[in-house]
Write a structure and sequence with these properties.
OB fold (Dihydrolipoamide Acetyltransferase, E2P); four-stranded mixed β-sheet; eight-stranded mixed β-sheet; alpha+beta; about 20% helix; 7 helices
């Protein structure tokens, strides 16, 4: 049985760039909630209130309170990934192989937050869309799950769709995909019907508009001067250029920072092999399911410096968090 988690809250538009730092990316939408905001229906129909997430912590890449001290949750918009507005490579792990000198050089190279083309324009488009529903936007956050931890990713974010407008009929995730502001990015936590909905959304315009027109396969190209501009202003004419799949861009950036600092000596394929991302081909995943479909890694889809597939062609294995209470006890039921 697949249950449904439903969260009612509001989105403050002031969070979006250039007034704030939030972007159209999958990790940046903060939703204001209270103790009556959460409800769960194990059968997908009969909802009952739950406050299981208040005072709960995720244990994944780090330990994080899932409802912050300002009564907000961070929502990773399921099924999509927009160009990066501000990304910095993850800090180096301490090891004997990394000298203090190399670490210092890495930190210096990694200090600027990098962005991709189209990131600013996509963010402004999302904020403009949401502004049509009022200065403070009422929203419904939904996710198909059976256990409380299944909605939380390794970074403590709620993985879900956000709906706004009358009757919550406008699905923000699908709108971003359909309008060409974000690429579809699938995870093994998604149901086949959800993936198919995104495939239908991007097919509507034939993947020929906006960021799709500049989809780029060559991982050898990188502009270190393309950095985050915290105050804008937006210049759409200058915010157009080639765009790698954002997930690949994040790995490209980490590789280049480590290469510059002398931490990593191989090529980009070597880096992907050393830092593997488990994934499936979308067709295999839909036909066979995650328990049977052959498992791949990103380096399987590289040919020289070229990435040979499009974002909708692969499904990444989800990395969940443990969900625990203040005492460290695992939360397993609503």
């Amino acid at each position: 049985m697949v249950g449904v988690l439903r969260v009612l809250g509001t989105i403050d538009l002031a969070q979006f760039w250039p007034d704030g730092e939030a972007d159209a990316d999958t990790s940046k939408v903060k939703v204001n909630v209270n103790r009556s905001s959460f409800s769960f229906a194990p059968d997908g129909k009969k909802f009952k209130k739950t406050d299981v997430y208040f005072g709960a912590f995720s244990q994944g890449a780090s330990k994080k309170q899932v409802v912050d001290n300002q009564d907000r949750i961070t929502v990773r918009l399921q099924g999509i990934d927009a160009p990066e507005l501000h990304y910095r490579a993850a800090a180096l792990r301490r090891s004997d192989a990394v000298s203090d000198a190399k670490r210092e050089k890495f930190n210096l190279e990694n200090k600027p937050q990098r962005r991709q083309y189209w990131a600013e324009t996509a963010t402004v488009a999302l904020a403009a869309k949401l502004s049509g529903f009022g200065p403070t936007v009422k929203c419904q956050v939904t996710s198909f799950i059976d256990q409380p931890f299944e909605v939380i990713d390794t970074y403590g974010r709620f993985v879900a769709n956000i709906r706004v407008g009358a009757g919550y009929k406008t699905d923000v995730n699908l709108w971003l995909a359909e309008e060409g502001w974000a690429y579809p990015t699938f995870y093994s936590s998604m149901k086949a019907t959800e993936i198919e909905a995104y495939l239908k959304a991007i097919a509507k315009h034939g993947r020929k508009r906006r960021i799709w027109k500049d989809y780029w396969l060559d991982t050898s190209k990188f502009d270190p001067k393309l950095v985050y501009r915290p105050l804008g202003p937006i210049d759409e004419a200058k915010d157009k250029g080639k765009v790698l799949m954002p997930k690949l861009f994040r790995r490209q950036l980490s590789f280049r920072m480590q290469k510059k600092a002398g931490v990593f000596s191989g090529n980009f394929i070597d880096y992907l092999k050393a830092n593997q991302d488990s994934c499936f081909k979308t067709d295999d995943f839909l036909k066979q399911g995650k328990d049977v479909a052959p498992v791949h890694s990103l380096h399987d889809f590289m040919k020289g410096t070229k990435f040979t597939v499009q974002p909708q062609d692969i499904v990444f294995r989800e990395k969940y968090s443990n969900l625990v209470d203040a005492g460290g006890n695992r939360i397993e039921a609503f």
